[in-house]
Design goal:
alpha/beta, about 170 residues, about 35% helix, 5 strands, 5-stranded parallel beta sheet, TIM Barrel
């Protein structure tokens, strides 16, 4: 899949480091290959469970440690992490204190993008839920916690809320 992507990027003048694209993958080898072919920004996706399909035995939890982040920085510009890698949740759905992932990633020279922010209560930790009568929870409060840690970007179903808060 990489050759057609590179061709499309080249055809549209999107090969530079400051291109308005962000190429993301859960797999390491794909990003390593793309790193050799383009300067466009690359993002290593990670979640609290599992690991990259192309690296059996490697977990995203290991990759989120300082030594793993240093390795990611050799082929990617950013990490894209599920919210639970920054604010783990317990069995009740409450978010715990923030991990050191944002600080460690920035120390490794990586930007941090967090996914996916949605307003519905089911996607929010219990302390940001408002109940069925409201239809949506406190997405702004949840996003604010991440912005306070210095994350570089977010994926969201509500860009107006995210951008408004960021400004």
């Amino acid at each position: 899949m990489e050759p057609p992507l590179i061709a499309a990027l080249a055809d549209n003048g999107l090969m530079a480091a400051d291109s308005p694209v962000l190429i993301q993958s859960f797999e390491i080898d794909v990003l390593r290959s793309l790193d050799q072919a383009t300067d466009a920004p690359l993002l290593q996706l990670m979640s609290p469970l599992g690991g990259p399909f192309d690296r059996p035995g490697t977990t995203y939890a290991e990759m989120a440690r300082p030594e793993g982040l240093a390795q990611i920085a050799t082929y990617a510009d950013a990490i894209g992490v599920e919210t639970g890698l920054i604010f783990p949740r317990d069995a009740t759905g409450a978010a715990h204190a923030a991990t050191s992932l944002v600080t460690a990633a920035h120390a490794a020279g990586l930007k941090v993008v967090v996914w996916t922010f949605r307003a519905e209560d089911v996607f929010l930790p219990v302390e940001h839920r408002r109940g069925e009568d409201h239809g949506a929870g406190d997405l702004s409060g949840w996003l604010h916690r991440f912005y306070g840690l210095g994350v570089d970007g977010v994926f969201t179903d509500h860009p107006g809320v995210a951008v408004g808060l960021r400004e």
